[in-house]
Amino acid sequence: MEKIVILTGAGISAESGLDTFRDEDGLWSRHRIEDVATPEAFARDPGLVQAFYNMRRREAAKARPNAAHEALARLMQAYQGDVVLVTQNVDDLHERAGSQGVIHMHGHLRGALCAACGHRWLAPEEMATGEACPSCNQATARPDVVWFGEIPYQMDEIYDHLSEATLFAAIGTSGQVYPAAGFVIEAKAARAYTVELNLETSDVTSAFAEIRTGPATQIVPAWVDDLLSDRTS
Ligand code: BV8
């Protein structure tokens, strides 16, 4: 049974109008990771961190899935084998395009998490600092996203999928953040065929057997068409 494991990054949502991190006008050109995307930042200035994620949540709610998200939903629905979609993104554009069972290894903007008791609930559009947890009532609500230095979610499940992959594709990711950037190595160790779909080369392009370059809304639908017509490995 064929198993395709796909990893997506911010580049797949770029043409939906959502900022990437490392493009020249990206999020990390306006915010320092240390100020908005680490547990220390949240402890130091929760207001600044909540404002950063409230802005991200507002932008994601205004955005619409693009042809690349829709092509992956079509692949998951029509492909004869298994398709596992892992995303580093915290937006919900894959789900809104129709993909189900998406693994959000870095969490998601729609989620709130209690830092004290671990309770999870649907995040409000705007999360205030000191918001009380609906379960333990302590003022310890935070965005349910994985910050730098924190353990990404569902890693055991992801490594299991990679060990069974016959095809691994990375779409719209710069390959700079681990452990996601190392998935291609895991897939190659499982003797999977590997393909990178990106606007330009990434930090891990040399690890891939095949490279498809261009905007995701063009190259992802073409790749899915090839897979569904069995014109590719
Ligand atoms: C971990 C969620 C242990 C929140 C994110 C020193 C101290 C502490 C840690 C470390 C350290 N050194 C290394 C580390 C590990 C660290 C790390 O890798 N740091 C990097 C900076 C060196 N990683 C961690 O801390 C991770 N945790 O290691 O725990 C562990 C290890 C192994 C196993 C288990 C546990 C946690 C990392 C998660 C951090 N959270 N985000 C939020 O979103 O705000 S990271 C954030 O950046 C994203 O989630 C994403 O994952 C990541 C990478 O971004 P990309 O998605 O790749 O986006 P980017 O802008 O970089 O690139 C966009 C790409 O798209 C480009 O290639 C571009 O060409 C392309 N593109 C643009 N437009 C288009 C396009 N492609 C196609 N079409 C287009 N139109």
Tell me about this structure.
The protein is an alpha/beta fold. Helix content is 33%, strand content 19%. It folds into 2 domains: 1-18 and 65-106 and 152-233, TPP-binding domain (Rossmann fold, 3-Layer(aba) Sandwich); 20-62 and 110-145, 2-Layer Sandwich (SIR2/SIRT2 'Small Domain'), CATH 3.30.1600.10. It contains 9 helices and 9 strands. The strands form 2 sheets. The chain has a 6-stranded parallel beta sheet with strand order 3-2-1-7-8-9, sandwiched between helices. A 3-stranded antiparallel beta sheet has the order 5-4-6. Helix 6 links the parallel strand 2 (82-87) and strand 3 (103-104). The two termini are 13 Å apart. The structure holds ligand BV8.
The CATH topology of the largest domain is given as Rossmann fold
Tally of discrete structural domains: 2
The rounded Rg comes to 18 Å
The end-to-end span amounts to 13 Å
Query: How would you state the average pLDDT, rounded?
Result: 96
The overall strand count is: 9
